[in-house]
Amino acid sequence: MTVHTGPLPTRRLILQGAVTVALIGLGNLPFVPVHAAANDKYPEEAFKLKNEAEAIKALYGKTAEPSDKVKLDAPEIAENGGVVPMAVTTTLDKVTSISFFVAENPNALAASYKFPDGTIPAVANRLKMAKTSNVTAIVEADGKLYSATKEVKVTVGGCGG
Amino acid sequence: MASSIRVRATSNGDVTEVQTLIQHPMDTGLVRDSKGETIPAHYIQELKFACNGKDVFVANWGTAISKDPYVKFSFKGAKKGDDLTISWTDNKGGSDQITAKIA
Fold first, then answer.
1. Per-residue pLDDT tens for B33-60?
2. Which of A13, A37, A142, B23 is deepest in the core (most CB within 10 A)?
3. Superfamily for A36-154?
4. Where are the domains of chain B?
5. How high is the ipTM of this complex?
């Protein structure tokens, strides 16, 4: 390899500087709290969190209160943790989002749905569950959070078990 | 190529019920293959339903959604024959889109 002289070392210095700045920038990113959540962008950070309470906080920036107006329909026992059908319905008004959290999964947040005006606040989907766990459904209605929790027993793991 | 999205949207007077099935591996990034190597995460992050130029339902998904995801919801304000556009994007930049008529 040839040794560069003249203007080139300067350019190299600048490039190194740019790389350093980029690295510092990236290194800082995970520590910046992002409460963008239930608005429009994909909530990358909330999906990465392991703990359920932290994931709820990252997604919504507040805590939920249990409510009998939120109905979580999930099986008592799931024979296959890879496919656990679940549905949420609610009688609450002004629902803007519904999310599913599985406490014992590697990442608690499973899914978050947004409900524009005119969409009926109910959703059915199928989740993976690593093991027996509490499942929490959170409904955001009129700016407040309401939740329903149910334990689902899993007899065969869904996440690489 | 056949679309990865299968959709059934049925109008029942005021309310349109939408059922969707998507073909996608939804790999979590935690599973090893037969050679003991980790299968990288590959999952749908965002799924959107738009009708008459307006988003009617948006799903943000993590890795805990089952393989070949299914989702069902209902909305108001559409009638028979309206177009419903469904699109998804995954964490590797993959995407697909389909437009279905409400029946």
1. 899 899 999 999 999 999 988 999 999 9
2. A37
3. SoxY domain (2.60.40.2470)
4. 5-27+40-101
5. 0.93
